[in-house]
């Protein structure tokens, strides 16, 4: 089974940068998008029809903001949109697909970089997500969670840990939340497979950060301990 997770920072923009070719070349079974910034009606159906996919979108009420989507080939038994919280569900942050032997969860966590109000909202989301994850594991222990978590976990996951010690996305309380999340039986698959590697998934557009590889690892594939053993 092949899965792709991509924060596309605007799926319509990504279409103009070769997204369809990227999918065609790799032929994944699932494609999980974060930060789509669009509704399904705004996307050419050829994006999913060409590869035999079915789309499911969770778009934000606010136009051009947030949003997640999944393209899948095998129909799931059940699809759950959102986390059951009106405040965060209107921002388009969660799609959960249930199959007989596993579940796929695509999520886009809030950022707190715009100030104290959004940072407080982010911490509330983390608490909500932790509780929802525990509930869902009781029903299906084999869960694969992917997405943009907006947290760099350890100094190994960020280019300048000292300089970013007070930056949202690397705050002690956020990192502690992720530590506790992993301790509850989730596995960071990249770190499990590559314990020594220092690689990143996001770079700011400023000051040539990408070319200088001054990045953050804030995008993840997690699996439950039960799924890791399969």
Automatic annotation (TrEMBL):
Mg(2+) binds at residues 7, 35, 148, 150. InterPro entries: AP_endonuc_1, Endo/exonu/phosph_ase_sf, Endo/exonuclease/phosphatase. The record marks 219 as: Important for catalytic activity. It comes from the Bacteria. The record marks 150 as: Transition state stabilizer. SUPFAM superfamilies: DNase I-like (SSF56219). The keyword ATP-binding does not apply. Pfam families: Exo_endo_phos. Keywords: Hydrolase, Magnesium, Manganese, Metal-binding. Probably binds two magnesium or manganese ions per subunit. Residues 5-227 form the Endonuclease/exonuclease/phosphatase domain. Its cofactor is Mg(2+); Mn(2+). GO terms for biological process: base-excision repair. One of its GO terms (molecular function) is phosphoric diester hydrolase activity. Belongs to the DNA repair enzymes AP/ExoA family. This is Exodeoxyribonuclease III. It comes from Leptospira borgpetersenii serovar Pomona str. 200901868.
């Amino acid at each position: 089974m092949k899965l792709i997770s991509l924060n596309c920072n605007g799926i319509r923009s990504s279409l103009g940068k070769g997204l369809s070719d990227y999918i065609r070349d790799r032929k994944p079974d699932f494609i999980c998008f974060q930060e789509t910034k669009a509704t399904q009606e705004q996307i050419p159906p050829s994006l999913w029809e060409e590869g035999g996919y079915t789309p499911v979108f969770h778009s934000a009420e606010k136009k051009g903001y947030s949003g997640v989507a999944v393209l899948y080939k095998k129909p799931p038994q059940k699809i759950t949109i959102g986390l059951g919280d009106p405040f965060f569900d209107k921002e388009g942050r969660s799609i959960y697909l249930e199959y007989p032997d596993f579940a796929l969860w695509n999520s886009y966590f809030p950022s707190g970089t715009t100030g104290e109000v959004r940072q407080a909202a982010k911490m509330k989301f983390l608490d909500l997500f932790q509780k929802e994850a525990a509930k869902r594991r009781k029903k299906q222990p084999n869960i694969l969670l992917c997405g943009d978590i907006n947290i760099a976990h350890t100094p190994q996951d960020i280019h300048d840990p000292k300089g970013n010690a007070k930056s949202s996305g690397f705050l002690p309380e956020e990192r502690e939340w992720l530590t506790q999340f992993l301790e509850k039986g989730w596995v960071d698959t990249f770190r499990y497979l590559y314990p020594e590697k220092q690689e990143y998934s996001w770079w700011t557009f400023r000051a040539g950060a990408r070319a200088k590889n001054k990045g953050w690892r804030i995008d993840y594939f997690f699996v439950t301990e039960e799924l890791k053993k399969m």
